[in-house]
Automatic annotation (TrEMBL):
Main location: membrane
Stored InterPro entries: Band7/mec-2_domain, Band_7, Band_7/SPFH_dom_sf, HflK, Membrane_HflK_N
Keyword Membrane part of the UniProt annotation: yes
Protein keywords: Membrane, Transmembrane, Transmembrane helix
Short name of one Pfam family: HflK_N
An annotated GO cellular component: membrane
Similarity comment: family membership: Belongs to the band 7/mec-2 family. HflK subfamily.
Comp. bias intervals (Low complexity): 1-20
Chain intervals for the UniProt region annotation (Disordered): 1-22, 353-383
Biased composition, class Polar residues, residue ranges: 358-367
Protein name: HflK protein
Keyword Kinase: no
Subcellular localization, as worded in the UniProt entry: Membrane
Species name: hydrothermal vent metagenome
Length: 383
C-alpha cells in the first residue's frame, strides 16, 4: 500500500491516532501462541511415538543391510574404513559397516589385461579395426647402432589389490612407462640380427626385466606374457636392409652348401684312404708270406737236391715244362711207347675256341713265362 494513496491511509488502518504495538507485547503474544500449540499436541505425542520408533528401526535395518555385498570368484574386495585400508575379502557373500563408515572397492584380479607398446588398436568411422603406429614408442636404437621399428603387446593381471589401489596413483600408466624402459634396455644391449632372429628370447628377457621393475615399485601387477608383434627396420631403409639380408642369406646358403659338400666328400676320401691302406697292408702280408713260402720250399728242394741231384733235376725240369706247356694245344708223345694214348679233345677244342680272344694276354703271359723260365734255368745251371 502506497503512503500517498488517494484515501490518505497509513499501513495501520484508518485511525491515524492508533499507535504501533510495543515490543514486549509482541513477545508475549508469540509466547502465548507457542504454549497453546504444545498443550494441544501433548495428547497426540504419545500416540505417534510408537510409529516413529518403528520407522527408525526399519531405517536402521535397511542401513545395516546395505553393508552386504557379493564378490565373484575372479574378484577381490578391498574394504576401507573412513578411507583407510581395512582388509581384503575373497569371493562369496561378505559384509562391512555401511556407508559412510566403511566402503568397498571390488577389483577383478583374474582378468588378463593388455597394453600395446609402439602401436594402438582402434576402430574407424566405418567400424573397421586398424593398427596405428606410434613412432615415439616403436623406434629404438640397437647395440650395433641400427634403428629398429619394434612393437610389443604386454599382458598382465592384478596380483595385489592393496598395492594396486594405494601404492601408485596410476598403475596402468606406470606399467606402460616401465614396459617401454625395459624394452629399450634389452633392445639396446643386443644387435639387430639377434633381435630379429631370436624373438622368443628377447621377449623373455623383457618380461623378466619388467617384472623386476614392477616389484620394486610395488605396483601390484603380474606380467603374464610379453609378445613381440613386429620387428623390422624403418620404412625409409627397408629396401636397403632387405638387400643386405638377402646377401647374408646367400652367403649363408653358400657356406651351408660348401659344408654339406665337405661333409660328403671327406668321409668318402677317408674311407678310400683307409681301404687303400688296408689293401696295401694285405698286399704286403701276401708278398711277405709268399716270399717266406718260396724260401721254405726252396730250402726243402735244396735238401732233396743234395740227396739225389739227378732225380731232383729231372723232376724240376718236368714240373717246369708242365707249367710251360699247360695252356698249349699241342700234344707231345713218346715215339718209343706202344701204349694207347687218350687225348682230351673236348678240352683241346675248348681251349682253341678261346685262343683268339686271349691272344694278347697269352702273348704277354708267354713272354713273362719265357723270362721266368730262362731265369729259372740260369739259377739251376748256376747250381
Amino acid at each position: 500500500m502506497a503512503w500517498n494513496d488517494s484515501n490518505n491511509q497509513n499501513p495501520w488502518g484508518n485511525n491515524q491516532n492508533q499507535r504501533p504495538p510495543e515490543l514486549d507485547e509482541l513477545i508475549n503474544n508469540l509466547k502465548n501462541k507457542f504454549d497453546n500449540f504444545f498443550n494441544k499436541n501433548d495428547n497426540k505425542q504419545n500416540l505417534s511415538f510408537g510409529a516413529l520408533g518403528s520407522i527408525l528401526l526399519l531405517l536402521a535395518v535397511i542401513w545395516l543391510g546395505s553393508g552386504f555385498y557379493i564378490v565373484d570368484p575372479a574378484e577381490k574386495a578391498v574394504e576401507l574404513r573412513f578411507g583407510k585400508f581395512q582388509r581384503i575379502t575373497s569371493n562369496g557373500l561378505n559384509w562391512h559397516l555401511p556407508y559412510p563408515i566403511e566402503t568397498k572397492e571390488i577389483i577383478n584380479v583374474g582378468k588378463i589385461r593388455t597394453i600395446a607398446i609402439g602401436f594402438r588398436k582402434g576402430v574407424n568411422l566405418r567400424g573397421i579395426g586398424f593398427n596405428g603406429n606410434v613412432t615415439s614408442e616403436s623406434l629404438m636404437l640397437t647395440k650395433d647402432l641400427n634403428i629398429i621399428d619394434i612393437k610389443f603387446a604386454v599382458q598382465y593381471r592384478i596380483n595385489n589389490a592393496k598395492n594396486y589401489l594405494f601404492n601408485i596413483k596410476n598403475p596402468d600408466q606406470t606399467l606402460r612407462e616401465a614396459s617401454e624402459s625395459a624394452i629399450r634396455e634389452v633392445i639396446g644391449n643386443n644387435n639387430m640380427d639377434y633381435i630379429t632372429n631370436n624373438r622368443s628370447i628377447i621377449s623373455g628377457l623383457i618380461e623378466d626385466k619388467l617384472q623386476i621393475l614392477l616389484n620394486n615399485y610395488q605396483v601390484g601387477l603380474k606380467v603374464t606374457s610379453v609378445n613381440m608383434q613386429d620387428a623390422q627396420p624403418p620404412e625409409q631403409v627397408q629396401a636397403a636392409y632387405s638387400d643386405a639380408v638377402k646377401a647374408k642369406e646367400d652367403n649363408q646358403r653358400l657356406i651351408n652348401e660348401a659344408e654339406a659338400y665337405a661333409n660328403d666328400i671327406i668321409p668318402k676320401a677317408r674311407g678310400l684312404s683307409s681301404r687303400i691302406l688296408q689293401e696295401a697292408a694285405a698286399y704286403k702280408a701276401q708278398v711277405v708270406a709268399k716270399a717266406e713260402g718260396e724260401s721254405k720250399r726252396f730250402d726243402k728242394v735244396r735238401i732233396e737236391f743234395e740227396k739225389a741231384p739227378k732225380v731232383t733235376k729231372q723232376r724240376l725240369y718236368l714240373e717246369t715244362m708242365e707249367g710251360v706247356f699247360e695252356k698249349t694245344t699241342k700234344v707231345i708223345m713218346d715215339s718209343d711207347s706202344n701204349s694207347l694214348m687218350y687225348l682230351p679233345l673236348d678240352k683241346l677244342l675248348k681251349n682253341s675256341s678261346k685262343e683268339d680272344s686271349t691272344t694278347t694276354q697269352i702273348n704277354n703271359g708267354n713272354t713273362k713265362n719265357k723270362r721266368d723260365f730262362r731265369s729259372l734255368l740260369r739259377r739251376r745251371g748256376a747250381r
